[in-house]
Amino acid sequence: MAESGEALGTVPEHERILQEIESTDTACVGPTLRSVYDDQPNAHKRFMEKLDACIRNHDKEIEKMCNFHHQGFVDAITELLKVRADAEKLKVQVTDTNRRFQDAGKEVIVQTEDIIRCRIQQRNIITVVEKLQLCLPVLEMYTKLKEQMSAKRYYSALKTMEQLENVYFPRVSQYRFCQLMIENLPKLREDIKEISMSDLKDFLESIRKHSDKIGETAMKQAQQQKTFSVALQKQNNVKFGKNMYINDRIPEESNEIVLKHAIEEEDENEEEVLSVQDLVDFSPVYRCLHIYSVLGDEETFENYYRKQRKKQARLVLQPQSNMHETVDGYRRYFTQIVGFFVVEDHILHVTQGLVTRAYTDELWNMALSKIIAVLRAHSSYCTDPDLVLELKNLIVIFADTLQGYGFPVNRLFDLLFEIRDQYNETLLKKWAGVFRDIFEEDNYSPIPIVNEEEYKIVISKFPFQDPDLEKQSFPKKFPMSQSVPHIYIQVKEFIYASLKFSESLHRSSTEIDDMLRKSTNLLLTRTLCSCLLNLIRKPHIGLTELVQIIINTTHLEQACKYLEDFITNITNISQETVHTTRLYGLSTFKDARHAAEGEIYTKLNQKIDEFVQLADYDWTMSEPDGRASGYLMDLINFLRSIFQVFTHLPGKVAQTACMSACQHLSTSLMQMLLDSELKQISMGAVQQFNLDVIQCELFASSEPVPGFQGDTLQLAFIDLRQLLDLFMVWDWSTYLADYGQPASKYLRVNPNTALTLLEKMKDTSKKNNIFAQFRKNDRDKQKLIETVVKQLRSLVNGMSQHT
């Protein structure tokens, strides 16, 4: 029962499978059949049975179908057999007709083929013409490109390339020759870049070589313009009475001549004025810039140009090692720099973006720092003021030229103030030599005048005013020597030289006045004063020369106010201006006079020492000669002659010199008595010494220099006088009794001095009086000397203990 149930269940499934096999494509039969094997056990057998039953059913149906249509098939075959004969006849007829048509169409075919061939040729010709018409413009443009390359018209060649690529090549891109042309264009572009870059390099090398010529032309034009402006300004100043620079050596009327000459020179050079375009061919830069712009590589060109120009700037800014030796070295340095920046300024204004204002400003600031450092270093080696002045003029023209092109130059004018100080230093050194030469050539004697003409010549050189001298008849003498007017003239020359540097510095008259006064003060206080002090200290300068130097400095001091007026006339700045600097002539010449006075005192004392060294006393003489020593009389005569020369000196100077000489003579005589090498002094020697002191006192009382009151000058010998009186009178009791009293007769006698001299006399008495013990007077005198010596020693010891 179970098996029969399973069999009943599988029958519908087998029918479904069979339906799928019959209805589906043969490619899908496999999965269907596989499902039979995947089914229940013995399902295959039952499926095969079912399949056989199905086949039998289909066979039966086919058989029924064949039986049904068999008669129709037989009838159709019979009809075909009947038609076969007619078909053969028709075939023969068709074959014959075809043969006849073939024979008749052979000629037509030949003609038709000829026509077809002609039509094809015609069509090909038309196509070739069309293609040639399309290719000819391309070939013409390419030929034009080659011609432009040969003619070095590279910018036009690049434009032609653009037209070829954008317009012509797309029309014939299918042809091989077009591909060759397209492949050749990049090479042509690279060739153009290389050629244009080579032209640019040649251009850069050319402007590097000719930058000095460009700068020289630009500076010359700036200088001509400035000369014309200055001449016009001077004429206007003359017309309106505002002449800034009054030159004693050049009359003001010459301003019109200067202006006329400047105008004539301007007219002559007008035709010769060359611009930077006239000196330099900038076409390589323009071409190269346009070419790189077309190629889309403008940034590369700009970077290359700026990099190369910066390298050239560094080379231009590098000075020669010996540049400071000549002005031509500085001029070459400046012209190269000016030429460089004139070219850059031109490039800035005629190109778009190749260089920018920021780039030129950066380049200028870098260059300016280098220029200032170079000038500061090299100018320090300049010792010639003329070279420094020419350097200043070059810097001014250099600054004015570049300022005209829009470059800031304030730092250059600041540098000029540093160079001005150096210029003043070189001037001071130069004038120091001038002053030394003047002092060496001076005879240190008053200037003799024999007629009115000579008098006027001296007055024209030096502002001397003395009514008493004017009233005197010829011949007469100026109190100063020849060096005074020469020094005065040289001081004015120094002011002129200092003024030359101040011109064109764009400074006000007040600043120029202040600079002139300060530099003149340096000349007076440092250079002239130093030269005077060195002159005073020279060994060959004697007392007469020193006296004349003092007189000269007095007159130079008085002339300082005229120098102030001279500077005022130059600058038109009144001396009453609050900030006007005064000349330090008073302190300058006062220091020199003090030094000369001190040197007079020193040399006078040295001369006295020379005379004193000639003293040849016989310190053991028994009796004096009865007259003063010869050396002393010669000394007094010398002092009298010297003090006569001192009459031209200020009163106090002569009095001080006289007092100093007497005091020094007194001190020298005292030291001679107390010399430690002098062991013995006789009374006769003391008496002879007293005669010499008397002559000194007589000289002092004769008033060798007027102005002393009473016996002031004689007091210089008071110490000697009291000491000698004490020994001459032998008044020891009074001396010892009154010692220390204000009213003492021998107040100026020092116990030590008296003891020293007395001991020397005691030793002499012992040696010269061998038989003194046999004479009562001599014994008494010797005892008295010993007693006084003991008392003086006790007095000296008491003074030492008290001290």
TrEMBL record:
Record-annotated Exocyst complex subunit EXOC6/Sec15 C-terminal domain positions: 412-760
InterPro entries: EXOC6/Sec15 (IPR007225), EXOC6/Sec15_C (IPR046361), EXOC6/Sec15_C_dom1 (IPR042045), EXOC6_Sec15_N (IPR048359), EXOC6PINT-1/Sec15/Tip20_C_dom2 (IPR042044)
One family name in Pfam for this protein: Sec15_C
Alphabetic keyword roster: Exocytosis, Transport
Residue span(s) of domain Exocyst complex component EXOC6/Sec15 N-terminal: 50-219
Coiled coil: none
Magnesium as UniProt keyword: no
UniProt similarity note: Belongs to the SEC15 family.
Function recorded in the entry: Component of the exocyst complex involved in the docking of exocytic vesicles with fusion sites on the plasma membrane.
Name of the protein: Exocyst complex component
Gene of this entry: LOC101396368
